[in-house]
Amino acid sequence: PTEVADSMTISGRGNTTWTKFPKKPYKFTLDNKAKFFGLDKDKKWVLLANHSDKSLLRNILAMKISSILGFDWTPAMYPAEVWFNGDYLGLYTISEHKKVSSGRVDIDTDAGDMYLEVDLLMDETTCFETDIMRVPIMFSDPEEPTPAQLEETKAYFKEFEQVLMSDSFADPQDGYAKYVDVPSFVNFYIIQELSKNCDGHLSKGAFITRTAADPRLKMYHVWDFDIAFGNCNYLTDIKGVDNGPEGFLIKDVGPHGRDTGWICKMFNDPVFVSLVKARWTEVYPQLSALGTFIDQAAAAQKEAAARNFQRWPVLGRYLWPNVSWPATYDEEVANLKAFYTARLEWLNENLPVL
User: Fold this and answer.
1) What is d(CA 62, CA 76) in angstroms, rounded to the nearest whole number?
2) Each residue of 223-259: pLDDT tens digit?
3) Rounded to 5, what percent of the chain is helix, strand, coil?
């Protein structure tokens, strides 16, 4: 184990997870950089509560998928029991904080690079909605771009969406592929669809970089899967979508309903569909092995999970937005594994669809 003796600042983090649940998520900032789990030294770290994810594994599973897909950065996540001033707070997931730095989002904002986030909350200092497809964009770094940067970024998104909505959107030179890093969008699609993530259809949870050297939109990393993988009961609010492991979500649904958003339009391009299928075929063997990963991860934290549910006795109780609420931790893990396995096989049989 890593031992760090240092003072720190602790703050609450999250939106729904902070306001809805008694087990709170936190961000802590050390006075001095420290190394955890052999990772790069940093001051900023996150403690994810995973209160409504009673498997306590969904974020860790998602990051394993992210590493298989090879995103530019996969936040490292590990289970960790937390005490604060002698009070046992439960089993958390300690994670690298999403931010611009050499070991995380490795861009140079001093050179004009940008780190953007898609989120309907629009709660950063500088936010806008794209002109045509109304995708909510927030500046994460720089938080306050120059007026020229802001106007150029708005204009870039407008031009991208104009091209994407045009009759020649699939042109290999002058179509939408001129404006986006297509492989990163393919990987983004696969992880969001495989997890059937209710936040994954460009309503939140997309993290985009643009650099001075390459202004194309790149899906740099992913985040926030505690109510994915069959743990979201309001997917049924979308016509034609259910909470189970079958059926498309990300391919068919955008931030403003069915057939809206960037991914939905890209699926009208046979080249994009072929790239999705090729990438899926490439990573499917590794994705198929993750049932064993779930078993091993659950076994490694089973005793800590028991202590967590003594502190927070929520097994067998509904917590927003649970689809089911079995009475034991083993059943929670079994439900996650069953959903993942069924979802994987359904997609394997049904991709691609033009």
Assistant:
1) 11
2) 999 999 999 999 999 999 999 999 999 999 999 889 8
3) 35, 20, 45
